[in-house]
Amino acid sequence: MIFKAVHDGRPYPDHGHVTPRDWAEVPPRQVRLDELVTTKTTLDLEALLAEDSTFFGDLFPHVVVWNEVMYLEDGLHRAVRTALHQRSILHARVLVLDD
Q1: What is the separation, in whole angstroms, between the first and last Cα of the chain?
Q2: Residue 50 has pLDDT above 70, yes or no
Q3: Which of 21, 43, 92, 97 has a CA between 20 and 30 Å from the CA of residue 36?
Q4: Where are the alpha helices (DSSP H) in the chain?
């Protein structure tokens, strides 16, 4: 199993981090893939295979912790690529929301 679970949608409240500048304030740290719950059920194959998939975006996936659960909000293609390289840990920006 790659991820802890696969969900469709974000169960947590709006956190106000929308732009790359907002997320740049959140420092990256290591997270285990098997602790993540995805917020998307589909993967864009072009994003997965693109060599420059982070050219216009953040280098790090975005994770939101809410109710002690880690939700992968953005960067599903990066997480799957990490798993395909047989790695279980990736660096992500982790935003912790209060309950």
Answers
A1: 28
A2: no
A3: 21
A4: 20-24, 45-49, 76-84
Would residue 85 count as lying in a domain? yes
**Total domains, the chain:** 1
Of the two residues 25 and 49, the one the predictor is more confident about is: 25
CATH no. for residue 85?
3.90.1530.10
Domain that holds residue 45: 5-10+21-96
Q: How confident is the model at residue 44 (pLDDT cuts 50, 70, 90)?
A: confident
Q: Going along the chain, which residue ranges are E strands?
A: 5-6, 28-32, 36-38, 62-66, 69-74, 89-96
Other C-beta atoms lying within 10 Å of the C-beta of residue 83 = 16
pLDDT tens-digit map of 71-84: 999 999 889 989 99
Q: Number of C-alpha atoms within 13 angstroms, CB side, residue 90?
A: 27
Count the Cβ atoms, other than its own, within 10 Å of residue 54: 15
Stated pTM of the model: 0.87
